[in-house]
Amino acid sequence: MLEDLDALMDVNEIDALLVVGNVFEVPDIYWLTGFRSPDSIAYFHSKGDKPVGIAAFNTIKRIKKQSYLKRTYDLSELHLKFRRAGKRAAHHPNVVYGTILQEHFTGKVLGVPDHLPARILVAIQKLGYTVKVVPDLLKNARATKSKAEIRSIKKAGDATISAIEQIVKMIKKSKVGPKKQLLLKGNPLTVHDIKLALEHFLLDRGAESAEDMIAAVGKKGFDWHHLGNATDVLKAGVPIILDVFPRLKQERYVADVTRTIVKGQPHKKVRAMFEAVIAATDAVVDALTDDAPIDEVNMACYQTLKKHGFDSTRLNPEAVEGMTHGLGHGIGLEVHENPSFYDRERGFVAGHVVAIEPGVYLKAHGGVRIENDYAVTSRKPKRLTIGLDDIMYL
Question: What's the total number of domains in the chain?
Answer without folding.
Answer: 2
